[in-house]
């Protein structure tokens, strides 16, 4: 498939925010990414499947979620334009996923296969370091969110979301935001009506 220079430049910006690469390493890394498109509400990776790709979102909105034994869904993460996506633990460990990756809107992405990712890491030690730093950054964000979920009141969680990402109220259906915050939809609606920043 043909690679779009503008799309690769957007990817490059995101990669370099983690750590700059030398030009030869970047060129090798960039060559492995392939464009892919998905329709709205399409499951990209299902629980039980092994994640074969890491994704970079060009357009669209996705979520990672879990379905509990009681069939209740828990939204864990959202990804959107200019962010990386995929089931990271399944990808890195090549073990079956416990989670689903689903598009909430039609989505265009670049993807890199696990085989290509592994080959690149072996050839370029700086990419191994880049991957480690990217994973550490993602883990730091997840731990921060975990503390919020365990220690914040419903209103504090809601205010935190609005402070960090006010745009999500227009982008993401409220039932998924409620799930992401660990709130029932009725509580989320009350907070939406009463909390002003």
Automatic annotation (TrEMBL):
<dbReference type="InterPro" id="IPR000595">
    <property type="entry name" value="cNMP-bd_dom"/>
</dbReference>
<dbReference type="Pfam" id="PF00027">
    <property type="entry name" value="cNMP_binding"/>
</dbReference>
<dbReference type="InterPro" id="IPR014710">
    <property type="entry name" value="RmlC-like_jellyroll"/>
</dbReference>
<dbReference type="InterPro" id="IPR018490">
    <property type="entry name" value="cNMP-bd_dom_sf"/>
</dbReference>
<protein>
    <submittedName>
        <fullName>Crp/Fnr family transcriptional regulator</fullName>
    </submittedName>
</protein>
<feature type="domain" description="Cyclic nucleotide-binding">
    <location>
        <begin position="36"/>
        <end position="124"/>
    </location>
</feature>
